[in-house]
Description:
Blueprint: H1 3-15, E1 17-20, E2 29-39, E3 50-52, H2 53-65, E4 71-81, H3 83-94, E5 100-109, H4 112-117, E6 121-124, E7 129-132, H5 145-164, H6 170-177, E8 189-192, H7 193-198, E9 204-205, H8 208-227
Parallel strand pairs: 2-3, 2-4, 4-5, 5-6, 5-7, 6-9
Antiparallel strand pairs: 1-2, 7-8
Helix pairs in contact: 2-3
Amino acid sequence: xxxxQSEEREQIKExxxxxxxxxKQKDRIKLLTIIGEIEGxxxxxxxxxxxxxxxxxxxxxxxxxxxxxxxxxxxxxTLGGDVEAGLSIAxxxxxxxxxxxxxxxxxxxSIGGPxxxxxxxxxxxxxxxxxxxxxxxxGMFIGVEQSxxxxxxxxxxxxxxxxxxxxxxxxxxxxxxxxxxxxxxxVGTLLEGEDxxxxxxxxxxxxxxxxxxxxxxxxxxxxxxxxx
Length: 228
């Protein structure tokens, strides 16, 4: 194994990322995977797959600053996690000046919604799902009015981000979020691939070929703009 292959394997192992550079268009694409729970300031269980946000933020800063990267492809298969950490990643992706595409593979619970729509264009595989549900908390909860107000503000930040970066209205998102008939022992809505597109949350149903094809198309458009 040469040094380049060794570095690529280490990059996948440690960061869940890879540089895609051998395509015929000669586009330089950064691939990022966001899998399992989003880990915030507190570590999740050792038996749970998690994505550490302190790993992703520097990578996203590098993508924005580097002349060696033309675009970003994000693969998503999340189980929720830390809301603040998830929103920070989503805001970073949304603020990138370079072409970005997301692809939802399987489940995308809770904070996976903002992560999916943070890219300029989003795809979901036919069997993929988006789960829209209210903000919850674990452990001790101090039952005062301020605590409830804080949770409602956090929820409002999520629904506003979803609305700002998709074709859904905030009112429609909140209605689906508080639906009591869809999920067992919970409120919310599970949207499968076609449903997520029909509702306007995700742009299109597709797979890896579609996501990469769209990203190459967006990169080509950016190169044409710079050439003028």
